[in-house]
Design goal:
The complex is a heterodimer of chains A (304) and B (331). Chain A is mostly helical. Chain A has 12 helices and 2 strands. Chain A has one domain: Glycosyltransferase. Chain A has a two-stranded antiparallel ribbon with strand order 1-2. The longest helix of chain A has 17 residues. Chain A is globular, with a radius of gyration of 19 Å. Chain B is an alpha/beta fold. Chain B has a single domain, classed as Rossmann fold. In chain B, strands 1, 2, 3, 4, 7, 8, 9, 10, 11 and 12 form a 10-stranded mixed β-sheet that branches. The radius of gyration of chain B is 18 Å and the shape is globular. Classes of the chains: A mainly alpha (304), B alpha/beta (331). At the A-B interface, helix 10 of A face helix 5, helix 8 and helix 9 of B.
Amino acid sequence: MATPAAVRDVIGDLAGRLRANANPDGGWGYTPGHRSRVEPTSWAVAALAAVSGPGDGWSPMPHLQFLRRRQTPQGLLADQAGGPPNYAFSALAAIAVDATFPNPADPWFRRLVEGIVGGRGVAFAPGDVRDRQQNALQAWPWVDGCFSWVEPTAWCLLLLKRLRGQNRDARRHARVDEAERLLVDRCCANGGWNYGNAAVLGQSLEPFVPTTAMALLALQDRPEHPLVRKSLSWLEANVDRERSGMALALGLICAARFGSPSGELEAALADQFARSRFFDQQHVQAMALYALAASRTGAEVFRV
Amino acid sequence: MSSGRASRGVTRRAFLGALPLAAAAASCRPARFTPGAFVRAAHSPVALLPAASYDADLVDVVARGLRMFDLSVAGRRVLLKPNLVEFERGTVINTHPAVVHAAAVAFCGAGAREVVVAEGPGHRRDTEYLVTASGLSDALADAGVRFVDLNHDDVREVNLGSRFTGASSIWLPETLLAADIVVSMPKLKTHHWAGMTAGMKNLFGTVPGAVYGWPKNVLHQRGIDESIVDLNATVRVQFTIVDAIVAMEGDGPIRGQARPMGFLAMGADVVAVDASCARIIGLDPQKLPYLREAGRFLGHADEDRIEQRGESVSRYRTRFDIVDHLTHLRA
């Protein structure tokens, strides 16, 4: 079990790696030496902002500029020019930027948020009656023209809840309401969420740790909802069953937001880094850095 | 995945029933493939090689299989694409790590310049967990080859090789596009939307999740059968090794039951390999829309165009359980 000193060493190691592996364009790839992408850059901005202080030489500006350059005409961010904009990572970028360097009046940020508010997954007629899934609910897809799924819905919902204090228009309220209903609808039988189907053809499907943590973060302001309570219990019982940097980091962030015990998770995450280096995945290294650096202060980036 | 029930809003039965009309209308729309762009031999060999269990000498089985085909491996970059969609202990969802290990060793032994194992899991994006928990990580370490996560690889937009979905292009991983030889290595399973998943359907895992999401719903929205054909017309699989040592029947690809079959199926024509697998599990290849369409230009699905090597189809023929709404696919 990693000691507090070992956890601090991992924080230093992860921060050093991320700083060293930023691409010249200001972004981070999914692994070192690869093209910059929105998701790892968003996580890295949040993580390095959490561990950096005045005088240590780190500036967010080149990284924020990278995100700004990824904006498409509809306001969303896309990894590649001409590529499909991605709702999940656009929302994640907006969360990271708003939490670390807020400027709600910035036209770039406003277009980004409006692009997210304007998007929705496709609706379907009712599916197999055994599944009781409400296919007419429309939250957020990964990309336009697709069904709504848990991860993009969770990040987009969390973003709109973060921004409620700035904008309370009815359209956003309706989107929040429908997204919450979709997450409730897609909750697995024993709590928790997978990618977004609780059952198919009458067979219950199992939840996953990362998507459960994301959905719970988006529903953190509903702590008394029976499905939130059940899902939090499921997460606490299973978070270290899926041994990976992603599962442990998101589980730790979730624990911080719900006030659950986190000491063992910190140690497990540090141990996992020693074991696998998270397969050199930079979005996971950044998730873990943020989780380790911010969990004891409430993981404020993900507060709604 | 529930949203995959329909093919662009049309049920599979309706899709099948509408085919005569579709044929009549075909003259009014652009061709869905360019015949001259696809070269087929007169016949396609398919090998069925016994392998009683995952403890068998699978390196020997795969190496013998490779020698049955005129596949030039020496000095080339080989990408092995297993089926690793999700992990649940005690299930047979994925290509067994022992088969992937055997293929890696066999291709290295055949003189490949580089062998990588690459997959973009379709449901779980937590690759570290999936690769480790499934046992694939240990198998690859033992074989001395690396894993490439196709979900998070660098990507490039490429033109589709056919137009069954109506789309003109797709973003695909650079590692996949750079490979000299792509080997599809599926688990043989029934599939509750596509009917069967084998070498052709396995290419869904090449579509990058970081671009299109988890699951790869864009492929369902464009039509599952149509997407299978377009992907196979674009990513040209040079060799297929089907893990049918223990297959899955019933409500596959996730919730089905294990069905011990005891063989590996191999071949250079993925359509022919899949057609043989369909016949083995009691499905009619001509009733599987993607296989029938692919059999018109990508490879051979007709039995009289397939040259069976090793064991016969009849040795392994087994009527797999299949979900009720797909019983019309039976032979």
